[in-house]
Amino acid sequence: DPRLILVLGDQLSLKNPALVAARPGIDTVLLAEVAEEASYVRHNRHKIVLIFAAMRHFADTLRDAGFEVVYVTLDMGVDSLLTALANTLEAVPVLAGVHCCEPGEYRLRDAMRGWQESLGRPVTVHDDSRFLASHRDFERWAEGRKQLRMEYFYREMRKRYNLLMDNDGKPEGGQWNYDADNRSGWRNQAEVPDRPSNTPDAVTREVIAEVSACFPDNPGELADFRLAVTAGGAQAEFRWFCDNALGQFGTFQDALAEESLWLYHGLISMYLNIGLLEPLDVCREIEARWRAGQCKLSDAEGFIRQVLGWREYVRGIYWLHMPGYRDLNTFEAERPLPDWFWSGNTDMRCLSRALQQSLDHGYAHHIQRLMVIGNFALLAGLDVRGVCDWYLAVYVDAFEWVELPNTLGMALYGDGGIMASKPYAASGKYIQRQGNHCASCRYDPAKTTGEGACPYNALYWHFVDRHAEELTRNSRMGLITGGWRKRKAEDREAIIAWAEQTLQDIG
Ligand code: DLZ
Ligand code: SF4
Question: Which entry of 112, 191, 288, 433 is 20 to 30 Å from 338 by CA?
Answer without folding.
Answer: 433
